[in-house]
Structures are given as structure tokens and as C-alpha cells.
Amino acid sequence: MNMIGRIRGTVVEKQPPEVLIDVAGVGYEIQIPMTSFYQLPEVGAEASVYTHFVVREDAQLLFGFADKNERAVFRELIKASGVGPKLALTILSGMSGQHFMQCVAHEDITALVKLPGVGKKTAERLVIEMRDRFKKLSLEQSASDDFALQGNNSIENTFVTSSDAKEEALSALIALGYKAPQASKVINSVYVKDITSEELIREALRAMI
């Protein structure tokens, strides 16, 4: 049973792949796959996030998603052998839930092994285990417009230097399981002037998948 299924509040901090949302004075730290993170509104705006609550012996974790479909794929993923919440988060950061389902349906092992933490055996096992589960999975035809509930994002923009953007992008990719040397190399290869850290993460992930 999932105790916390949805959170609606003000975005206080964004540090990929984590966001802090304030709900009536209580701040919830939520880990969000990058495919959903890109859709978050700016700091100071209101957002609604579909969540999955994980309780472990050493921690209680919240994972957030732009819509119910992404959460549904995440929930199916963590049922697979050898796939925990962290790897599921990484997979859904590298590709959307829909893209992942297509890779499974087409048995695209080549695409799956490009994800950190997914070797050939894991990819093959995912295809076998997830294929039938996804056939039974009923996804809603819903847009993820809950994320930006408030059109007024009038928050003061913070100037971000190139080094800041690179450091934030590197930190996010390492948190997602990529090795620092590989992540740094790709970040430098896709970096362009005035790019934001979120855009840099997006381009780096595209280059690696």
C-alpha cells in the first residue's frame, strides 16, 4: 500500500534529480527521474507530483513523477529481479516510460545496455520479465500538465556560470549512476554557451543513450 500518492505544493529547491516541495510548511524531498524533472516549474511555482513511497530499514524515500503513467512503469520496474528504486530511477532518467516499454516490446537490448547499471544479462532479463507485465499494464491517456499548476513563475532568475552548470550536471549524472570520467567527457562534448544545467543534463543523457 502506498501511503503518499500525490503531493501538491510550492517548489522550494531543485537539485537534479531531487526536488524539495513545501506543503503547508513541511518540506518533502522527492527523487524524480530526469524525464519528469524537466517538466517541473521554476522555484517558487506550485507543482503537483504523483509519488511512490518506499520504506526501508535505513530510510523512507519519496519518488515523484510527472504523471500516473510514468509512476506505473516505475512500479512495474521495481518488481523485476535485481531492480531497486535507484536503478528504476536511472532507467527512467535515460528514457521515458513509453520509450522503455518500446525497447522491451522490440527487445532492443542495445538501447537498454547503454543505461548505467544495466548490463546485457540485466537487459535480457528485463525484456523477458517486463514484456508480459507491460501487456497487462493499462496506461491512461493523460497529459502531465499538473506539474505547472501556476502560470505565474515570477521568481528572480539566478545567473548560472558555465562551471556551475557543468558541476550541477556532473553531480546529477553521478547520482544517476554514471561514472564521473564518462559523464564529464560527455558534458564537455555537448556544452554550449549559456546552456542551463537542466538542458545540459538532458543533452548529456541523450548523447549517452
Structure explained in plain terms:
There is one protein chain. This protein is of the alpha+beta class and 209 residues long. It folds into three domains: 6-65, OB fold (Dihydrolipoamide Acetyltransferase, E2P), CATH 2.40.50.140; 79-136, 5' to 3' exonuclease, C-terminal subdomain (DNA polymerase, domain 1, Orthogonal Bundle); 162-208, Ubiquitin-associated (UBA) domain (Helicase, Ruva Protein, domain 3), CATH 1.10.8.10. The protein has helices spanning 34-37, 68-77, 85-94, 97-105, 109-112, 120-136, 162-175, 180-190, 197-208; strands spanning 6-15, 18-23, 26-31, 46-55, 60-65. Strands 1-2-3-5-4 form a five-stranded mixed beta barrel. The longest helix is centred in the middle third of the chain and has 17 residues, at 120-136.
Helix content: 40-55%
- Which overall shape is indicated by the principal axes computed on the Cα atoms? globular
Instruction: Tell me what the CATH architecture of the largest domain is.
Output: Beta Barrel
Order of helices and strands: EEEHEEHHHHHHHH
Major sheet strand order: 1-2-3-5-4
CATH class of the largest domain: Mainly Beta
Instruction: Write down the Rg.
Output: 17 Å
Number of domains: 3
Q: CATH superfamily of the largest domain, please?
A: Nucleic acid-binding proteins
Pick out the low-confidence regions: 149-160
Class inferred from helices and paired strands: alpha+beta
At the fold tier of CATH, the topology name of the largest domain is: OB fold (Dihydrolipoamide Acetyltransferase, E2P)
